[in-house]
């Protein structure tokens, strides 16, 4: 089974693509693929409750939600302000996933 | 898969597109590349579009003075990239798209950057186990 890392950097206010990207992630997760969605840069704003409704479907499909700790701190956010399923990660874990040969990576 | 001619094999090829100051993109890529190198990976970066501006000699070693911190020294992107290349000889390679450079008049790259024609890009892809496209041209 393929594993996927989808990296969202644009965020929900940059246009419709962010929501579309999350729906793509939901399709992958719903298809039984191990899927990790990483919110990076402006993308982290999507982890604030209610901002990105598409996340509900993604999480319901057992997708894993990662949020870049650096980007969160840079925007003055705190973990408590994000959806409870969000797991803060650092670049070492992200790089390890990119280097993993079985992981397919898509950057948006 | 046949490897690219004259292009050292790397674990990852990062194709960096997009303008350097339009977002945090360059910061994210630097963070990612630095961490992959720390994990002993070999990495190549292909700068395309306005990302070719990152390694222009005209940038100098430091950014213009910060009025809020007059005596502070902030390294230019050129200095940061040069430092990374010097710290990881043989494991980090920085390429620039010749077409994108010429189109923007960005023709004075630091010598560590190897300019290549866009038609040669496939060889870089072939030399990498994984290719990651980052940003929009």
Task: Please give a quick description of this structure.
Chain A is an alpha/beta fold and 108 residues long. Helix content of chain A is 33%, strand content 23%. Chain A is globular and about 35 Å long.
Please characterize this protein's 3D structure.
The complex is a heterodimer of chains A (108) and B (137). Chain A has helices spanning 17-30, 54-60, 69-74, 91-99, and strands at residues 3-8, 34-39, 64-68, 87-89, 103-107. Chain A has 108 residues and is an alpha/beta fold. Chain A has a single domain, classed as DsrEFH-like (Hypothetical Protein Ychn, Chain: A). In chain A, strands 4-3-2-1-5 form a five-stranded parallel beta sheet. In chain A, helix 1 (17-30) runs parallel beside helix 2. Chain B has 137 residues and is of the alpha/beta class. Chain B has a single domain, classed as DsrEFH-like (Hypothetical Protein Ychn, Chain: A). Helices cover 27% and strands 20% of the residues of chain B. Chain B has helices spanning 25-38, 77-87, 98-103, 121-126, and strands spanning 10-16, 43-47, 92-97, 114-116, 128-134. In chain B, strands 4-3-2-1-5 form a five-stranded parallel beta sheet. In chain B, helix 2 (77-87) links the parallel strand 2 and strand 3. Chain B is globular, with a radius of gyration of 15 Å. The two termini of chain B are 27 Å apart. The model of chain B has no long low-confidence stretch (mean pLDDT 94). The chains are: A alpha/beta (108), B alpha/beta (137).
């Amino acid at each position: 089974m393929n594993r996927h890392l989808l990296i969202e950097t644009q965020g929900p206010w940059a246009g419709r693509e962010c929501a579309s990207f999350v729906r793509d992630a939901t399709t992958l997760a719903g298809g039984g693929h191990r899927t990790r969605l990483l919110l990076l840069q402006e993308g982290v704003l999507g982890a604030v409750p209610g901002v990105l409704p598409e996340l509900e479907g993604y999480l319901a499909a057992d997708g894993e939600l990662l949020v870049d700790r650096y980007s969160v701190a840079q925007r003055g956010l705190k973990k408590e302000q994000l959806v409870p399923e969000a797991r803060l990660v650092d670049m070492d874990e992200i790089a390890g996933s990119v280097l993993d040969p079985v992981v397919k990576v898509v950057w948006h | 898969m046949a490897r690219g001619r004259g292009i050292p094999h790397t674990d990852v090829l990062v194709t960096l597109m997009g303008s350097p100051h339009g977002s945090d993109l360059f910061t994210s890529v630097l963070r990612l590349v630095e961490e992959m190198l720390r994990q002993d990976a070999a990495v190549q970066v292909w700068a395309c579009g306005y990302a070719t501006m990152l390694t222009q000699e005209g940038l100098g070693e430091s950014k213009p003075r910060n009025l809020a911190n007059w005596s502070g020294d902030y390294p230019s992107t050129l200095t940061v990239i040069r430092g990374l290349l010097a710290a990881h000889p043989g494991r980090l390679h920085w390429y620039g798209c010749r077409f994108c450079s010429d189109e923007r008049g960005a023709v004075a790259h630091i010598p560590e950057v190897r300019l290549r024609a866009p038609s040669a890009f496939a060889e870089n892809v072939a030399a990498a186990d994984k290719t990651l496209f980052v940003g929009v041209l």
